[in-house]
Specification:
The protein has 136 residues and is mostly helical. It is built from four helices and no strands.
Length: 136
């Protein structure tokens, strides 16, 4: 892959993603081995806690984009980062609502909320790629 490409992963990023994958795989194997895969209460707790953890992570991403927006010189770049931050924050809030409703697909408006955020992420990413390709 071309090192100038915006999709180029550093060695550190590859290492962190690999460790995360191995940790997730180990957790699944541990659940399967311990026979707890059928334990509905454990899975429900994991679901709830996982969504809360996700909400915090999306909130941290939002905070990162807000901080980064104030370091940008261009007003357009600032606004793009702020919009991205709002989308991450809304996506995190949707995870909290998901815990209360029991699923990302119910009620129907929660599904639309999450789908809108995913669409927003795609638009932001497309804009990022377009902007960085034109700068080369």
């Amino acid at each position: 892959m071309n090192p100038q490409s915006p999709l180029h992963l550093t060695k550190g990023a590859i290492l962190r993603l690999s460790l995360l994958f191995l940790a997730m795989l180990g957790f699944v194997l541990w659940l399967n081995q311990s026979g707890s895969m059928e334990n509905a209460q454990l899975l429900e707790t994991l679901y709830r806690q996982g969504n809360y953890i996700e909400a915090v992570l999306w909130g941290l991403f939002a905070l990162g984009f807000i901080v980064y927006s104030y370091k940008r010189d261009s007003l357009i770049a600032k606004r793009k980062n702020q919009i991205t931050a709002v989308i991450f924050l809304l996506f995190g809030l949707s995870d909290i609502v998901e815990v209360q409703t029991g699923g990302w697909w119910k009620p129907w408006w929660l599904f639309l909320w999450k789908a809108s955020c995913v669409l927003g992420f795609m638009v932001c990413f497309w804009d990022y790629l377009k902007t960085h390709r034109s700068q080369r």
